[in-house]
Design a protein that fits this description.
- The chain has 721 residues and is α/β, with parallel strands linked by helices.
- It has five domains: 191 residues, Rossmann fold, CATH 3.40.50; 203 residues, P-loop containing nucleotide triphosphate hydrolases (Rossmann fold), CATH 3.40.50.300; 82 residues, Winged helix-like DNA-binding domain superfamily/Winged helix DNA-binding domain (Arc Repressor Mutant, subunit A, Orthogonal Bundle), CATH 1.10.10.10; 142 residues, Sec63 N-terminal domain-like fold (Orthogonal Bundle), CATH 1.10.3380.30; 62 residues, 5' to 3' exonuclease, C-terminal subdomain (DNA polymerase, domain 1), CATH 1.10.150.20.
- The chain contains 32 helices and 19 strands.
- The strands form four sheets. The chain has an eight-stranded mixed sheet with strand order 10-9-8-17-14-11-13-12, with helices on both faces. The chain has a seven-stranded parallel sheet with strand order 3-4-2-5-6-1-7, with helices on both faces.
- Strand 9 and strand 10 form a beta hairpin.
- Helix 2 runs parallel beside helix 3 and helix 10 runs antiparallel to helix 12.
């Protein structure tokens, strides 16, 4: 199909009558096959352009990859792209890849792959044969190059793909940033930049009981602050952004008491369905579920990383259906989820920054991303973005900074030691580079290099290479003495990954994590569940639980009692001991989870949240898998124990339930119910009759028949009749 007809079919499928001005300009670039950086506000139609580029590549019998910053966004894109491909591309296959970092099998059959940048980077490390067929690479939210966490991986991934296929079409989708031309030049892309919004944004600042709009108008509201602004907006929806999780919960509780009184009976009925769903979908109903359920009944909810994926999905669905009137969220929502609202309220414009050990103003870009959620295309004439001032002199500052000021430039974060450590090893292990000269040549092509950072951080580069060499992750042939290598030297050293280095890189863990795991497995302390969990908690790949001052004595006591089981000895320095205790607390949480401790107890005992527990469990599962792979190299006798522990942590069960977990449709709760009812082995289940399970919680007739391989007499009679 010709490009023009393809675009026409896409527009027909999406029921789009006319392109926005920046879309028209961007489509011309896409049709020529050139790389593109589209820097426009939220909701200005960037996604359509990305889809057009991908289907153009597939139509040419090539592959496309869509990079998303968060897993939560991946499935949304997959659903949309599958609909498009089924309609206009004769069912071209769309897949998603967000986990199993060392696996690339099965992806070759897909024409379009939606992946996080971390997953795409891991694919390159494993070098599947189909990578050369990727003609189009879309990078959503490409301004996250500026993020110290995700930015380096995104930067390296884009650089690697350009190295693999110099003619690849890169389509970068970005918020408006001050140095977009610099980013476009680095990508070799045509820049399409615009401040166009399909729904105009009306901006205002609230103080006391008044909103001062940017057009000079003022509006009076009945209550001060967020409560007044949100209620003034009813029956329309509002998003409220606050600085912390606790603030989001408190603000939601406050609003629910006010908004719940103003709801119609029909609205209350719909909300009740979502309220009940929160509890019914939970494996174990916790206080978090109960509190959320109550808030939703009042037309309000909160949204942050402390919630489980299931809880967040129900809340997002309730907001999208317009059942929820207000959603209180931390700023991560602005980048991670497509939830527009008529009115966006930003209450907190500062946050604590541990780097500075002080409260700092929010970046302009971040505030603009939040404001960009105001206004729903096709529903609202305009969107309203309101900043909440606490003092009169803040009005001028907010106006000049956030309404009239330039966004911050996007700067490479690749130069940090952890980022260099991880990505230098991957470049060497994958064979992308094999000399010091080649390494410098590659880095010069990154954003890091193009911004002139390479030579300013030469000492750090050499420090990282020395670490990789000393820890037997790489070998340096012809190594020069001294830490600093002059820029004009010939750089003749040869770089080669060891078997250990290649394994660590393929496993997609920090090289320091690999070293910590290896050292623990080679320690004199015999491997044991707590020691293994404490080891993975010591790695930089998992965020440890903070030990509060009033908990310090408790965990020092735990340390004295459990030291003999810990495979990595306590540090000598006091400050390091504090972090060691954080890791011990994290290990004990994971241990309690694997011992089937009720979730509510975990929340209280460790002062944590369901979302944080799931995040730690998920990360721990992965690092335990990595540990089992490393143990094959350094301590094979430990592998079975590690694998068992991995399954236990993944499912939150004791060892005796492992055989039952192998049964289809049997998870943590059902396995325990079966075991407690006397069905302790797979054989005992197979030998039973379906009717034997009638009193086992969670085991209905259909599942009982499935587990036993037998059908009850009524079912048989029906079938025979």
């Amino acid at each position: 199909m010709r490009a023009g007809r393809l675009l026409s079919s896409l527009l027909d499928y999406l029921n789009i009558k006319e392109l926005y001005p920046p879309q028209k300009d961007a489509m011309k670039v896409v049709e020529k096959g050139d790389s593109l950086l589209m820097s426009v506000p939220t909701a200005a139609g960037k996604t359509l352009v990305a889809y057009a580029a991908l289907i153009k590549a597939v139509n040419a019998k090539k592959k496309g990859i869509y990079l998303v910053p968060l897993r939560a966004l991946a499935w949304e894109k997959v659903v949309e792209l599958r609909g498009i491909c089924n309609s206009i591309l004769n069912g071209a296959k769309v897949g998603v890849s967000v986990g199993d970092f060392d696996k690339a099998r099965g992806l070759s059959k897909y024409d379009i792959i939606v992946a996080t940048s971390e997953r795409a980077d891991s694919l390159i490390r494993n070098n599947p044969s189909w990578l050369g067929d990727v003609e189009c690479l879309v990078s959503d939210e490409i301004h996250l190059l500026n993020d110290s966490g995700r930015g380096p991986t995104l930067e390296i991934t884009l650089s690697k793909f350009r190295e693999i296929n110099p003619n690849i079409q890169i389509v970068g989708l970005s918020a408006t940033v001050s140095n977009s031309k610099e980013i476009a030049d680095w990508l070799g892309a045509t820049l399409v930049e615009s401040d166009f919004r399909p729904v105009p944004l009306r901006k205002g600042i609230s103080l006391d009981k008044e909103i001062k709009w940017d057009d000079g108008e003022t509006a009076q509201i009945g209550l001060e602050g967020v409560n007044g602004i949100a209620i003034d907006n009813m029956p329309e929806q509002a998003l409220v952004f606050v600085g912390t999780r606790r603030s989001a919960e408190a603000q939601a509780k406050n609003l629910a008491m006010l908004i719940g009184k103003r709801l119609q009976n029909e609205e209350k009925q719909i909300l009740q369905e979502y309220s009940e769903k929160i509890k019914s979908s939970a494996d174990e109903v916790t206080s978090v579920d109960s509190n959320l359920s109550k808030l939703i009944s009042g037309g309000v909810a909160y949204h942050h990383a402390g919630l489980t994926n299931g809880q967040r999905q129900i809340i997002e669905d309730a907001f999208k259906s317009k059942a929820l009137k207000v959603l209180c969220a931390t700023p991560t929502l602005a980048a991670g989820v497509n939830l527009p609202a008529k009115r966006v309220i930003i209450r907190d414009l500062t946050r604590w920054e541990s780097t500075f050990q002080s409260t700092q103003p929010l970046p302009v870009l971040e505030v603009q991303q939040m404001l960009g959620r105001a206004g729903r295309p096709g529903f609202d004439v305009d969107g309203e973005g309101i900043l909440v001032a606490k003092k009169h002199d803040q009005i001028e500052y907010f106006t000049e900074t956030y309404f009239e000021g330039e966004t911050e430039p996007v700067l490479s974060k690749l130069g940090s030691e952890p980022a260099l450590r991880t990505h230098l090893l991957s470049l060497i292990a994958s064979g992308t580079i094999n000399t010091k000269e080649g390494l410098h040549g590659f880095l010069e092509k990154t954003l890091f290099g193009s911004q002139g950072e390479l030579w300013r951080t030469q000492h750090r580069l050499n420090k990282v290479l020395n670490f990789l060499d000393e820890e037997n992750l790489i070998e340096i042939e012809g190594k020069q003495d001294g830490e600093f290598v002059p820029a004009n030297s010939q750089l003749q050293e040869k770089l080669r990954a060891t078997a250990f280095g290649r394994k660590v890189s393929q496993l997609y863990i920090d090289p320091l994590s690999g070293v910590i795991i290896r050292n623990a497995l080679q320690s004199e302390v015999e491997a044991n569940p707590l020691g293994l969990l404490h080891t993975i908690a010591r790695t930089p790949d998992i965020y440890s639980l903070y030990v509060r001052k009033n908990e310090m004595e408790t965990y020092l006591t735990h340390l004295m009692q459990m030291e003999g089981d810990l495979m990595l000895p306590p540090p000598v320095e006091h400050i390091d001991l504090e972090f060691y205790l954080w890791d011990l607390k994290t290990a004990l949480l994971l241990m309690d989870w694997a011992e089937e401790t009720p979730e509510e107890h975990l929340l209280k005992r460790y002062s944590t949240t369901p979302g944080d527990i799931r995040a730690k469990v998920e990360t721990a599962e992965w690092i335990l898998y990595a540990m089992s792979e490393i143990s094959e190299l350094v301590s094979p006798k430990t592998t079975k124990l590690i694998t068992e522990l991995q399954i236990r942590v993944s499912n939150g069960v004791r060892k005796e339930l492992l055989p039952l977990l192998e049964l289809d449709s049997v998870g943590r709760v059902r396995a325990r119910a079966l075991f407690n009812a006397g069905f302790t082995t797979q054989k005992s289940i197979r030998d039973a009759k379906p009717s034997d399970f009638k009193d086992v919680a969670g085991i209905g007739t259909v599942l009982a028949e499935k587990l036993t391989g037998k059908k009850g007499p009524m079912q048989m009679h029906f079938e025979l009749g």
